Amino acid sequence: SLSTGLDLPGRFLFATLTLMTLIAILVFIEEAVYIYRKIPSSKRSIIIWINAAAPVISTTSCIGMWVPRSTMFTDFTAGIFFAIVIHKFLMMMIKECGGQKMLLRRFENGRFTISTGPCCCCCLCLPRVPITRQTLFWLKLGTFQFAIFRPVLVFLSIVLWTNGNYVLYNLSPKGPALWISCFIGALTLFALWAVGIMFRKVRILLKCKNIIPKFALYQFIVILNHLQTSIINMLATQKIIPCAPPLSSTARGSYIAQQLLIMEMFLITVISRVVYRRKYHDLEPPECAAEEPGDKKQ
Q1: Closest CA to 100 of 138, 137, 70
Q2: What stretches pass through the bilayer (predicted)?
Q3: Per the count of CB atoms within 10 A, which of 83, 101, 235, 297 is most buried?
């Protein structure tokens, strides 16, 4: 078992990381209570969802660390949750602008710059798209499709895994893992692209609502949860991360990824508490609108 296979430093590390996860959960619960009391009901659930991303990923990583056989389920749970959070973040930006009608009124003659990351940051020749109800619908669909298709693909992966056809680290063209991973990757890029297009347009208007640090935290979660974990798993698959009996290379890579995520998500949870804890009644759209012309001149 895991507990008998650990030496004293290993047990101390596991205990410390578990404590960090518990503190992250407590910080989130305290923040959720604050949000529930202080923030208008129209924004309340969205902001709680976004704040929950880091503690949920920390919790799933902690469970995966203690119960190695659950890694596939914990990774998939974190992935599904964050797919929903990406859609919620786009909706939060629209809500912070006063809702869809107010956003369309503010940017009546404005245009979206679609030559932005992660899909089209190098395609500067792309035309700028008018801000209409239809373009807003396509942006929302860009994140909503990820929140729908990611759970469906995860369910398909688990069905194939229980049948012995899906091997997580087997990335050969003949296996389903490579194709499912590529499809999820493409859906992720489209969802992040939609959020990037919206953020680029509203970042000056919502500067008074700390949208830039909020977006930075959201981007950190994306990079750490997806890119960092993928790189570590690839290094482990190629045996670059050496095995350390009784752990194989892939198991050791999974442990490293989970332990890093617990520490990183703990920090992000604490920072999120500072960034999101604002007196929202002082930051309603009229005040932001008053600041907008000055920002544009700058």
Answers
A1: 137
A2: 12-34, 46-67, 73-94, 137-161, 176-195
A3: 83
